[in-house]
């Protein structure tokens, strides 16, 4: 089996750009929204979810800004460092710790032609023993200010944490600038 083409960059943003994002996401004033399933599929016309609840906040959906908190990313070098042409989806996930590490469903963030045209990046807000597992066995640990980038067509799964109260990650799906 071929190994994933996964790029990992530690200390992705300078600390003066990273800390305002992290501090806002971890503040008691940040608006989180309940999502019953972290991932799901339509099977035989019926939605089947993974039964892993999470809190989310959507910044961009289908290229449209959904939250004024998007300024947190727009005001940093985050998107330019990723070589973003256009963001299609940008959201943050908050998963609570679990008694034992659980691996979610392996999935791609899109089930249509976009998955072959876009790039996915996961930006870790806090350090914990969770992470992201890829279908070929590659595992990326959740480390604060770490960015992992890969083709949107690569199947990946969240891995819960057991050592901190929550695991917070930013998920970005985007079209890259042509070099």
Can you describe this structure?
- The protein is mainly beta.
- 11% of the residues lie in helices and 40% in strands.
- The chain has helices spanning 15-25, 71-74, 78-81, and strands spanning 7-9, 33-35, 40-43, 46-49, 54-61, 64-65, 84-96, 119-124, 131-134, 139-141, 146-151, 156-159, 166-176.
- Strands 1, 2, 5, 6, 7, 8, 11 and 13 form an eight-stranded antiparallel sheet that branches. A three-stranded antiparallel sheet has the order 10-9-12, with no helix packed on it.
- A hairpin with a 2-residue loop joins strand 5 (54-61) and strand 6.
- The longest helix has 11 residues, at 15-25.
Short structural summary:
The protein is 11% helix and 40% strand.
Oligomeric state: single chain
Shape: globular
Order of helices and strands: EHEEEEEHHEEEEEEE
Structural class: mainly beta
Radius of gyration: 15 Å
- Total helical elements: 3
Q: Largest sheet at a glance?
A: 8 strands, antiparallel
Question: Roughly how many Å apart are the termini?
Answer: 29 Å
Based on DSSP secondary structure assignment, what is the total number of beta strands?
13
Strand content: 35-45%
Mean pLDDT over the full residue set: 90
Topology:
Blueprint: E1 7-9, H1 15-25, E2 33-35, E3 40-43, E4 46-49, E5 54-61, E6 64-65, H2 71-74, H3 78-81, E7 84-96, E8 119-124, E9 131-134, E10 139-141, E11 146-151, E12 156-159, E13 166-176
Antiparallel strand pairs: 1-11, 2-5, 3-4, 5-6, 5-7, 7-13, 8-11, 8-13, 9-10, 9-12
């Amino acid at each position: 089996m071929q190994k994933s083409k996964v790029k990992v960059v530690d200390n992705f943003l300078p600390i003066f750009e990273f800390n305002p994002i992290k501090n806002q996401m971890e503040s008691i004033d940040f608006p989180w929204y309940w999502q019953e399933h972290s991932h799901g599929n339509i099977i035989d016309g019926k939605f089947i979810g993974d039964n892993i609840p999470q809190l989310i906040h959507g910044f961009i959906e289908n290229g449209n800004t959904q939250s004024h908190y998007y300024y947190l990313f727009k005001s940093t070098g985050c998107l330019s460092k990723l070589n973003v042409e256009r963001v299609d989806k940008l959201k943050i996930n908050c998963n609570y710790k679990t008694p034992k590490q659980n691996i979610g469903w392996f999935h791609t963030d899109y089930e249509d032609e976009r998955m072959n045209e876009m790039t996915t990046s996961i930006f870790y807000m806090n350090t914990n023993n969770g992470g992201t597992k890829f279908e070929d066995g590659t595992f990326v640990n959740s480390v604060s200010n770490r960015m992992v980038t890969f083709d949107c067509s690569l199947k990946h799964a969240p891995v819960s944490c057991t050592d901190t109260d929550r695991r917070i990650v930013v998920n970005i799906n985007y079209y890259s600038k042509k070099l």
